[in-house]
């Protein structure tokens, strides 16, 4: 070791020692590490094998490899101090031919520089949802902020995995358990998972949990996991809004073209397998070009009124989508052309009460023009049927007919 390094090492406030990489021998230790042993009238051991209760020359070789590869940064082990075994948590750093081990926590002595003090402070004062999980004892310690986030008294926060799972949404428990179990079983460095958790006022909150291996044993097994929980309810609400926007037309509430395509293809597949009829109708809500003369607000009201009216007239199994600003596409499963014409005639011929409602919403049934295409006569794919129905609409407009069969 260089003289500056040696001097810094000897006087560093954290207890530390240096192990020779090839042999596992302790080649140096600082004064504060020596003091730990002096308290019990003992002297530090000569090697990792004699220092660590469950170590061997082979286990040091494996641990050294893990330190050099970066897969272990912290290690928790039972250290022999005289006739006692003391649990110590070590931070390990590869120095090339040797490994520097810093003692940052022990369950026996009070270390002013121990990182555990910071952890305890964080659990008490942290503004983030911090928790620590001891895997062997299954003890969970939660910060005050988790109690605040979940609206529980601090002494009512989960203290074990079973306690935690009790307040996780039943549909999310398996996902959470799988992610965490894989993290521990595979000795992963970190994990991330989103799930719903029950609060003290009996509502489910969407949270994101990020966990990281904090302490590992000499064999690489995870001893402690530290993690954070954050509220992502607003993010989930936005995602749901965006999904709805992608699936449902904002003005009419009908399916969008892309969302409807999935339903259309499913119904077409059933018709092919079951040899049942299927009809598609393209509905132009402004065949007389009346809406273009209205203001944008009045036009939107008219389209919305027409779409809601038509939706109420169709059957539960039918699929209706808005595919253009003033055009709808209607799929009628298990429906012949004749039956389709009967249904569509009811749409273009509203009752007096329905007509009054339509007129109040700037909608006029006489503006409707509907083109019909049938499977398989007019096409064997959704795209072919849509083209055929569109051609029928154009023919209807040219001939001033409200319902046209291609």
Automatic annotation (TrEMBL):
Pfam families: GGDEF (PF00990), PAS_3 (PF08447). Gene3D superfamilies: 3.30.70.270, PAS domain. This is Diguanylate cyclase. Coiled coil: none annotated. Residues 276-406 form the GGDEF domain. Residues 191-244 form the PAC domain. It comes from Marinomonas pontica.
């Amino acid at each position: 070791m260089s003289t500056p390094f040696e001097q810094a090492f000897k006087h560093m406030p954290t207890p530390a020692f240096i192990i020779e990489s090839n042999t596992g021998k302790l080649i140096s230790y600082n004064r504060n590490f020596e003091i730990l042993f002096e308290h019990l009238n003992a002297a530090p051991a000569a090697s990792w094998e004699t220092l660590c209760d469950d170590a061997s020359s082979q286990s040091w070789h494996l641990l050294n490899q893990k330190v050099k590869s970066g897969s272990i940064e912290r290690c928790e082990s039972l250290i022999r101090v005289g006739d006692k075994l003391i649990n110590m948590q070590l931070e390990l750093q590869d120095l090339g031919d040797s490994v520097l081990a810093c003692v940052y926590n022990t369950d026996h002595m009070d270390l002013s520089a121990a990182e555990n003090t910071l952890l305890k402070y964080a659990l008490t004062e942290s503004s983030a949802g911090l928790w620590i999980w001891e895997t062997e004892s299954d003890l969970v310690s939660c910060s005050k902020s988790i109690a605040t986030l979940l609206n529980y008294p601090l002494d009512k926060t989960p203290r074990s995995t079973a306690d935690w799972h009790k307040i996780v949404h039943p549909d999310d428990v398996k996902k959470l358990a799988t992610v965490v179990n894989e993290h521990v079983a595979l000795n992963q460095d970190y994990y991330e998972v989103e799930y719903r958790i029950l609060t003290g006022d009996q509502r489910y909150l969407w949270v994101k949990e990020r966990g990281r291996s904090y302490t590992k044993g000499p064999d690489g097994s995870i001893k402690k996991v530290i993690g954070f929980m954050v509220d992502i309810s607003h993010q989930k609400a936005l995602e749901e809004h965006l999904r709805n926007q992608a699936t449902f037309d904002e003005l009419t509430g009908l399916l969008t073209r892309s969302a409807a395509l999935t339903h259309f293809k499913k119904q077409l597949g059933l018709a092919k397998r079951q040899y049942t009829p299927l009809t598609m109708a393209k509905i132009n809500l402004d065949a007389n070009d009346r809406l273009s003369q209205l203001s944008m607000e009045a036009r939107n009201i008219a389209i919305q009124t027409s779409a809601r009216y038509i939706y109420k007239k169709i059957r539960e199994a039918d699929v209706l989508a808005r595919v253009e600003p003033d055009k709808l596409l209607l799929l009628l499963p298990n429906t012949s052309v004749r039956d389709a014409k009967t249904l569509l005639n009811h749409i273009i011929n509203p009752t007096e009460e329905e007509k009054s409602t339509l007129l109040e919403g700037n909608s006029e049934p006489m503006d409707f023009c509907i083109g019909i295409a049938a499977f398989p006569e007019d096409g064997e794919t959704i795209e072919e049927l849509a083209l055929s129905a569109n051609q029928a609409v154009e023919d209807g407009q040219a001939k001033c007919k409200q319902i046209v069969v291609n």
